């Protein structure tokens, strides 16, 4: 059976959120939309997103790292969101393994969001239905698009090629090779949901930091630097400092 999924390389993800914005742009005007934002600039903003990037720091100074972790629906092979749905709105397609929501059947009870251990489902504040990543199902089968563009919007937008898309059950596919050759892993496999999406682990690069590199030689924000800084127009020009 075909199982379409994403494989995300955490080693090259830079947390730019291009995947988030491209996903929002494509899907809010597509079959899965709209993706409503309420009070975006207010005190209590709400918004519907299919994909989010969580960024956090690990380690102890000065040996710290920033980790960017994109997360969306994992299109589990044993999705716990499907059997709890009282109306059958949540379902898994047999032909490609994509988990979807039928908005016409969804009553917004949120049972599926409680069952999902990954927090991958969000309620749309306007339509009052549950929404989630569809793997851009309306795009990947669109024959009006060039074959090279029949990919999820997030995959197309990623500037570092951190996102791969394909059939993980096809041992010759790029995603299967990446999982096999680069130690790809599932998120929280102990839940028994068999998430289809996989992650490629971060690969450690040892960097030697010397003590003098932790201290700035100058600080343009310090009072001393501000007091001694040249007034506008009184310092050397670009011609004085550059050899053309």
Topology readout:
Layout: E1 4-9, H1 18-28, E2 37-38, E3 46-47, E4 51-60, E5 63-72, E6 90-92, E7 99-101, H2 111-115, E8 122-123, E9 130-131, H3 137-140, H4 153-157, E10 163-167, H5 174-181, E11 198-200, H6 223-228, H7 238-241
Parallel strand pairs: 1-11
Antiparallel strand pairs: 1-10, 2-3, 4-5, 6-7, 8-9
Task: Describe this protein's structure.
The longest helix has 11 residues, at 18-28. Helix content is 18%, strand content 20%. The chain has a single domain, classed as Alpha-Beta Plaits. The protein is of the alpha+beta class and 244 residues long.
Short description:
The chain has helices spanning 18-28, 111-115, 137-140, 153-157, 174-181, 223-228, 238-241; strands at 4-9, 37-38, 46-47, 51-60, 63-72, 90-92, 99-101, 122-123, 130-131, 163-167, 198-200. The protein is α+β, with helices and mostly antiparallel strands. The radius of gyration is 23 Å and the shape is globular.
Provide the CATH architecture.
2-Layer Sandwich
CATH topology: Alpha-Beta Plaits
Low-confidence stretches: none
The tally of beta strands, per DSSP, is 11
- What is the number of helical segments per DSSP (H or I, 4+ residues)? 7
Mean pLDDT: 88
Fraction of residues in β-strands: 15-25%
* Number of domain modules: 1
Compute the CA-based radius of gyration: 23 Å
Silhouette: globular
List keywords for this structure.
7 helices; single chain; two-stranded antiparallel sheet; alpha+beta; 11 strands; 244 residues; Alpha-Beta Plaits; globular
